[in-house]
Amino acid sequence: MTAKPLARQAKNVMLFIGDGMSLPFRTAARIVSRGMQEGKYRSMLEMDDMDYYAVVTTSGMESIATDSANSASAYATGHKSVVNALGVYPDNTKDPNDDPRVETIGELVKRTRHMAVGLVTTAEIQDATLQRCCPHPSEVGIPGHHGSVSKIQHRVLM
């Protein structure tokens, strides 16, 4: 009889979202920050040494071009949405605030594993990518109004 080794479970999970960090931008960052010598980078970026790496392309349900809200929702929920929709399934009703909510990865781990979710960002507090990792649009504040501190931003700042 052979004893099976105990599988180690992750205590913490870090999801790094390099919003707008497509391969050409990473290449440019390497050239600018590390320099080139004999047609090669002098060194790689720290993110190049991460154990796992994925590239995600996003498009909306109604458009190939997307915005931060739409793409951040796809990252956080695994579901496509429409431009300006943040974490909801769009419907054809007149009220944009009655769309069904979609559970985010942060909400999933809180609900199923009782884990805490923390955010570290270099983006502005009202950035859609950051906000998508938080609550839902019904908590955003004034629909279609940009520039004011929303309920989400207030919670993130607390």
Structural features, described:
The protein has 158 residues and is an all-alpha fold. It is built from 5 helices and 2 strands. A hairpin with a 2-residue loop joins strand 1 (36-37) and strand 2 (40-41). It is flat.
Give the helices and strands, then pairings.
Layout lengths: L22 H12 L1 E2 L2 E2 L26 H10 L27 H9 L14 H5 L18 H7 L1
Antiparallel strand pairs: 1-2
User: How much β-strand is present in the residues?
Assistant: under 5%
Principal-axis shape equals flat
Helix percent reads: 25-40%
Distance between the termini: 54 Å
Helical segment tally? 5
Q: Average the pLDDT over all residues and give the rounded result.
A: 75
Trace the largest sheet across and list its strands.
1-2
Jot down its keywords.
158 residues, mainly alpha, 5 helices, 2 strands, 3% strand, flat
Give a short overview.
The chain is mainly alpha-helical. Strand 1 and strand 2 form a beta hairpin. The radius of gyration is 19 Å and the shape is flat.
